[in-house]
Amino acid sequence: MADGSAGAVLRALLELGPAPRSSIARHAGISPATVTWQTRALLEAGLIVELPETAGASGIGRPHSPLALDTADNVAIAVHIAATHTTVAVVDIGGTLRQTTKVPHRTHAPYDILATAAAEVCRVRDESDGLRIVGLGVATGGRVDRTAGSVVDHSFLRWRDVPVREYLAARTGLPTQLDSHTRALMHAEQLFGRMGATASSVVLFVGNVIDVAIAVHGQVHYGPRSGAGSIESLLGLGAGKSAGPQGGSSLDDYYSDHALLERCGVASTMPELVAVAAEGAPVRGLFLERARVLGRVVAALIDLLDPESVVVVDRGRRVGGVWEAYLAAVREHSLLCTDPAELVVGSSFEGRVLEMSAGAVVLHSLFHTPLRALEAAV
C-alpha cells in the first residue's frame, strides 16, 4: 500500500508537471502527511527533484518548493520485436523518446533475433553513462505470458514458448519485463497519452498481428491463459471460414500488413505500400476494405464493452479515405455509438508507437510500484 501511494505521487507529477506538495495531495487523493512521507522516499530514490523555492500565483501566498519528475537522469530501454525488425529505444520516465534504432531480422529464428537485440541493448546501455536505467521493457505481438516472461505464440514469427525475459535479462544484466505490444500500448496511452484516467478503453492494433487490448476501471485485462485480446475469430472471420475472396482463414491471414503486401505484390514494405495506395486504386481499395472490416470489429467491441475511449493503430490510416471508412463502419454497425468521431481516435504516439509500447512495459510498473521497481533495478 505504501508503494502504491508513492506511485500515486509519481503519477500526479506526471499529469500536473512541477507542483507543490499540497497540489499533489489534492490531485492524488491522499493525505498531506502521506505525500510528505512518500516524496521524501522518492527524493532519496532519485525519481523526483525539488526545484528552487517560488512564491504563489501572482507573488501572493507562502513560498513553496515545487517537486518534479527527474526525467533528465532516469530512462528505460525499450525493445520492440516486430515481424521484420527489432526496435531498440531509450524513453525517459516522462515519456519522451530520447533515441531509437531499428535492426533488421536476418532470420525468424528466436535466438538469432534475441541475440541481436541483446547486443544492441548492451551497446545502448554502455553509451548511457550518467543515466540510471530503470529497466528493460520488451514488447511484441501475439500471445504473451507476462508473468512467465515468455512468448507463447507469435503466428508470424512462428515462435512458440520462447523465454524472452530470461534470455535478455541474462545477457544484458538489466531487470527485464515482457508484454504484448497492444496491452503495453494501452499502458502507454494511460500514462503518457490522451486516455489519462479513462475508466474503460479499447486499443485495436493493426499490423502483422491484429489484436486488441481492453481496460476496465483503468486495469488492463490479461486473462488466465494470457489470451485476452485475440480477435481472429470475431465476426465469423476465424479459422475455417473465408475472410474474403481469396479464402483467408483469419483476420491476420487476410488483413494484416503482411497479408496486404502479399495480396498487392507491388511493394516490399508497408511504408512503400502506403505511398502506392496514396496514389489511388487498386491498392487503396485494399486499405479501404480492411478499414471497413476492422471498423465492424470496433463496432462489436463498442457494443460489447461500452468503452469511454477507443484507439485504432493502423499505418493505413494515412491513406486517403481510410479513417473515414473506419468511422463509417462503426456508425453503420454499432448500436451504441452514434458519433464515432468523438469516441474513436488514433494513437497519441504517431510515428513512435513501437518505442512507446515497449517503454511502457517497464514504466507502467515504475509509476505504480516505484520503490519495488527500483529494488529490482539495483
Describe the structure.
This protein folds into three domains: 2-69, Arc Repressor Mutant, subunit A (Orthogonal Bundle); 74-186 and 353-377, Nucleotidyltransferase, domain 5 (2-Layer Sandwich); 197-346, 2-Layer Sandwich (Nucleotidyltransferase, domain 5). The longest helix has 23 residues, at 283-305. Helix 6 crosses helix 13. It has helices at 2-16, 21-28, 32-45, 110-126, 164-172, 181-192, 251-255, 257-264, 270-278, 283-305, 322-333, 340-343, 353-366, 370-377, and strands at 48-50, 67-69, 74-81, 85-92, 97-104, 132-140, 143-145, 150-154, 159-162, 176-180, 200-206, 210-216, 219-220, 309-314, 344-346. Helices cover 42% and strands 21% of the residues. The protein has 378 residues and is an alpha/beta fold. A five-stranded mixed beta sheet has the order 5-4-3-6-10, sandwiched between helices. The protein is globular, with a radius of gyration of 22 Å.
Give the CATH H-level superfamily of the largest domain. Answer: ATPase, nucleotide binding domain
H/E element sequence:
HHHEEEEEHEEEEHEHEEEHHHHEHHEHH
Would you tell me which CATH topology of the largest domain applies? Nucleotidyltransferase, domain 5
Basic shape = globular
Task: Write down the CATH class of the largest domain.
Answer: Alpha Beta
Q: Percent of residues in helical segments? A: 40-55%
User: Number of DSSP strands?
Assistant: 15
Q: What is the CA-CA span between the terminal residues? A: 22 Å
Number of helices: 14
Helix-strand category: alpha/beta
Main pleated sheet = 5 strands, mixed
The proportion of strand residues reads 15-25%
